[in-house]
Design goal:
By secondary structure, this protein is an alpha/beta fold. It has nine helices and eight strands.
Length: about 220
């Protein structure tokens, strides 16, 4: 199926209240333009340099999400325009996002990435560390950061029940934190091409889908 056909199908079949992030990293601008022409407006990238380059070539009404691991020294590259950073995994990163957002007189929306996968190489807060950070009140020091919710990347496995257990854990943590954050805390980002329906069943409100839309990525570029 073409990019347009995949976008059209996804936008028609995803349940109400579930947002589609088209994961466009490593894909050419032409493919993103095809998705845009089919009605997609939210795109996810993982490398700041690639993101900045694409912003300059594509329509201004696109909502750009940073979904990959973000180094503190790269925050300044995306601070002027990024709509949502999914991968906030430390207070150090929160502090830098706040600092760069203030320079541009912005409040930047973020998700806390929680490490639930069995793969130890994955980034993210340990659940207990995150709860300690939130309960400390330290977020009050970062007025230019608005926490919108949580994100996780499931274990890379054929065991879908393991993934569903991880997704349910993230949703339960989200519910536990929701009252303290208020109405702006509204996003659970989990689920990719291989497991997005299971993630939705477990309470995802935002799915990150790439290869189903654009095909396999070319990592050599």
């Amino acid at each position: 199926m073409s990019v347009k056909a995949q976008i059209t199908e996804l936008l028609a079949t995803l349940p109400q209240g579930v947002t589609l992030v088209a994961v466009s990293k490593f894909h050419p601008v032409e493919a993103l333009r095809e998705a845009y022409d089919a009605g997609q407006r939210i795109f996810g990238e993982s490398r700041p340099q690639e993101l900045v380059a694409k912003v300059a070539q594509l329509p201004a009404d696109i909502e750009w999400h940073m979904i990959g691991h973000l180094q503190t020294n790269k925050v300044k590259m995306i601070a002027p325009f990024v709509s949502l950073i999914h991968s906030v995994d430390s207070e150090r990163l929160v502090a830098e996002i706040d600092r760069q957002a203030a320079k541009h007189e912005r409040v930047i929306d973020v998700l806390f990435e929680v490490h639930l996968a069995e793969d130890e190489s994955k980034s993210g807060w340990n659940k207990e560390e995150l709860l300690t950070f939130i309960s400390s009140g330290a977020l009050e020091n970062y007025p230019n950061v608005r926490v919108r919710g949580l994100m996780t990347i499931g274990t890379l496995t054929d065991d879908i029940e393991l993934n569903k257990a991880e997704f349910r854990t993230l949703r339960a943590l989200f519910e536990n934190l929701r009252e303290g954050f208020g109405e702006a805390f509204d996003t659970v980002s989990m689920g990719m091409t291989s497991d997005y329906w299971e993630a939705i069943e477990c309470g995802s409100t935002m799915v990150r889908i790439g290869s189903k839309i654009f095909g396999e990525r070319d990592y050599s570029k």
